[in-house]
């Protein structure tokens, strides 16, 4: 006699949903048919707005619920998970976030579609039943986003004739309104700049790999940050740094960037003494500019007097920021620089004391 199938208590749907399109909605409907409740994991949460991640996790949660009937929306719980650029840690964070919404011992099923290598994360949750579903229509977030940025300068009606069939009606309505916002204008300009950047390298025989340096300076429980004066990331907070010049070593490039962007009045010998180590950050998706590998030089500057700094070159502002203020700046940090700070502070701490960021 066949054993009856018992539906899982919770179905989990993981994605960035930038934006939430009809393919996502079809998967969500499947998940709602499978389980008593659905937990939607909103990836890339707490990131600053960018052309790849234009919408906050709160906005995405609202758009998802607004695309459902009220009874179904009441069965959906949205949880944010930040990017860690470290898959094991990210898997732990996803499971922890999901289990805040699941009773102890309840069965959990992961709902998804194996699209390409970017879907391999679906196999990283061995304790959850995997419900692999076929592709739900011809929908894809990346071309939908690129169409929305309208770099082809299509007339409004022509643009929406292409976009509207890809989106739930409430999402399309919200995106039309958001097109009039200052954030849309800024991110569209940034994507235009980045697209030109990519086009300049399109004829290279291999995709380029860029090498950069950053300086992480700690002094008297403060960290030195700059506010970017140009796109990409105009107005966002970052570590001082930049590309390695053809005739510079990594060390020389770091010293040059610190001088140009912060006017830091410390000589080479002082910085050499203050150097604690170098961390490399090489995740393939850490920068929209392309594959960018950075070398972060970590310094502990002694004393209780913060050296004077002043923004220059690509930096609109340079400022010593109290370490306690960093969590509040997470959504205003450029690319993966909050993650860079988290990892470096965990390893090197400040004055020998480890500092933990979320």
UniProtKB/TrEMBL annotation:
The keyword Transferase appears for this protein: yes
Tagged with keyword Transferase: yes
Occurrences of domain Nudix hydrolase (ranges): 208-344
Pfam family, one: CTP_transf_like
Superkingdom to which the source organism belongs: Bacteria
Keyword vocabulary terms for this entry: Nucleotidyltransferase, Transferase
MF terms in GO: nucleotidyltransferase activity
PANTHER family recorded: BIFUNCTIONAL NMN ADENYLYLTRANSFERASE_NUDIX HYDROLASE (PTHR21342:SF0), PHOSPHOPANTETHEINE ADENYLYLTRANSFERASE (PTHR21342)
The protein, known as: Bifunctional nicotinamide-nucleotide adenylyltransferase/Nudix hydroxylase
Origin species: Comamonas jiangduensis
């Amino acid at each position: 006699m066949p054993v009856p199938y018992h539906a899982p208590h919770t179905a989990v749907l993981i994605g960035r949903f930038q934006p939430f399109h009809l393919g996502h909605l079809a998967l969500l409907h499947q998940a709602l048919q499978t389980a008593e409740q659905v937990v939607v994991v909103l990836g890339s949460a707490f990131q600053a707005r960018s052309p790849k991640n234009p919408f906050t996790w709160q906005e995405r949660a609202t758009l998802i619920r607004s695309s459902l009937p009220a009874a179904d929306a009441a069965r959906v719980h949205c949880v944010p998970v930040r990017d860690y650029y470290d898959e094991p840690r990210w898997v732990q964070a996803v499971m922890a976030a999901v289990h805040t919404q699941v009773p102890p011992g309840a069965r959990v099923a992961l709902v998804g579609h194996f699209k390409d290598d970017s879907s391999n994360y679906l196999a990283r949750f061995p304790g959850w039943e995997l419900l692999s579903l076929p592709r739900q229509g011809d929908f894809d977030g990346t071309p939908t986003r690129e169409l929305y940025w309208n770099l082809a300068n299509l007339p409004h009606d022509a643009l929406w004739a292409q976009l509207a069939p890809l989106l739930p009606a409430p999402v399309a309505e919200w995106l039309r309104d958001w097109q009039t916002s200052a954030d849309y204008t800024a991110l569209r300009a940034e994507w235009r700049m980045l697209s030109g950047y990519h086009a300049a390298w399109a004829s290279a025989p291999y995709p380029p790999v860029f090498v950069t340096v950053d300086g992480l300076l700690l002094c008297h429980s403060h960290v030195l940050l700059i506010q970017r004066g140009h796109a990409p990331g105009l107005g966002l907070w970052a570590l001082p740094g930049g590309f390695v010049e053809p005739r510079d070593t990594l060390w020389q490039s770091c010293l040059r960037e610190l001088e140009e962007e912060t006017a830091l009045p410390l000589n080479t010998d002082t910085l050499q003494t203050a150097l604690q180590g170098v961390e490399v950050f090489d995740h393939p998706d850490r920068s929209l500019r392309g594959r960018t590998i950075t070398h972060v030089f970590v310094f502990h500057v002694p004393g209780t007097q913060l050296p004077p700094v002043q923004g220059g070159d690509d930096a609109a502002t340079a400022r010593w920021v109290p370490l306690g203020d960093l969590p509040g700046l997470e959504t205003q940090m450029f690319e993966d620089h909050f993650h860079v700070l988290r990892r470096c502070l965990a390893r090197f701490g400040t004055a020998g004391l480890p500092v933990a960021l979320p």
